[in-house]
Write a structure and sequence with these properties.
- By secondary structure, the chain is of the alpha+beta class.
- The chain has a domain of 165 residues: Muramoyl-pentapeptide Carboxypeptidase, domain 2.
- The protein is 41% helix and 7% strand.
- It is built from 9 helices and 4 strands.
- Strands 1-2-4-3 form a 4-stranded antiparallel beta sheet.
- The longest helix is centred in the first third of the chain and has 30 residues.
- It is globular.
- It starts with a helix and ends in a 17-residue tail after the last helix.
- The N terminus is likely disordered.
């Protein structure tokens, strides 16, 4: 073998070594990516609990009877009636109902003192760029009973449902003394300013539920119950 042939032969292994190295690197990258995908697939989903007791409103489950409820969920036969509608306090689907929409029974049949306080608060809130939406207000006993039945089906028992929905006999919605306010920024505004109008959040697990407490103008809102099961009115 002459010197030229020897020199040419000595240069051949380099490309082969480079190709082998690239192949090994490719296998390592593929293995790393596969491991990441397997870890991601096996990671548990993160869930949040609706039972937070914080006094500051946080995004919460949709209130029973909220306007975002579909027609098929609320316009179902109830005891003694063929259907539920606006005359029962159902808020029209997809409607942005205001506290000034008195022609809608869910608003117009609220207790006069509560409605007057809500309208004063809503007027001042609009100056801050906040607009109140009534997700649920006054309800007929039939509507309340339907919501309770749905809650029992969803949560599995009467006891569990009682944390979210009262009976027709004890509900402040049926008497016109409660309103569910949305969206979140409106409920947050009321959490900070509502006492000046006598409007108070009553249950820590329901950041949307407000009732009139006239003494709050002077003394501040009373301590919230963790949920309706702690409210003595629910034990009547």
């Amino acid at each position: 073998m002459n010197q030229r042939t020897s020199r040419a032969a000595s240069t051949h292994p380099a490309p082969r070594i480079a190709l082998v190295g690239l192949a090994i690197l490719g296998v390592m990258i593929a293995a790393f990516l596969m491991r990441r995908s397997l870890v991601a697939a096996s990671s548990p989903a993160i869930t949040t609990s609706p039972s937070s007791t914080s006094s500051t409103p946080s995004p919460s489950p949709r209130p029973p009877g909220a306007a975002s409820t579909t027609t098929s969920e609320v316009h179902r036969p109830a005891e003694g009636k063929t259907s539920l509608g606006e005359d029962d306090g159902v808020v029209p689907d997809g409607a942005a109902v205001s506290v000034f929409d008195g022609e809608i029974p869910a608003v117009g049949r609220l207790a006069p003192g509560l409605l007057e306080a809500l309208r004063r608060a809503a007027t001042d809130a609009e100056a801050d760029g906040i607009r109140f939406r009534v997700d649920s207000g006054w309800r007929s006993p039939e509507y309340q009973q339907r919501l309770l039945q749905d809650a029992v089906a969803e949560y599995g028992s009467q006891e569990a449902a009682a944390r979210w929905v009262a009976t027709p006999q004890t509900s402040a919605h049926v008497s016109g003394d409660a309103v569910d306010i949305g969206p979140f920024d409106a409920a947050a505004w009321l959490s900070h300013h509502g006492a000046a109008y006598g409007l108070c959040q009553i249950y820590a697990n329901e950041s949307w539920h407000y009732e009139l407490r006239p003494d709050a103008v002077r003394d501040g809102c009373p301590r919230m119950y963790a949920d309706p099961t702690e409210d003595p009115r629910m034990r009547q």
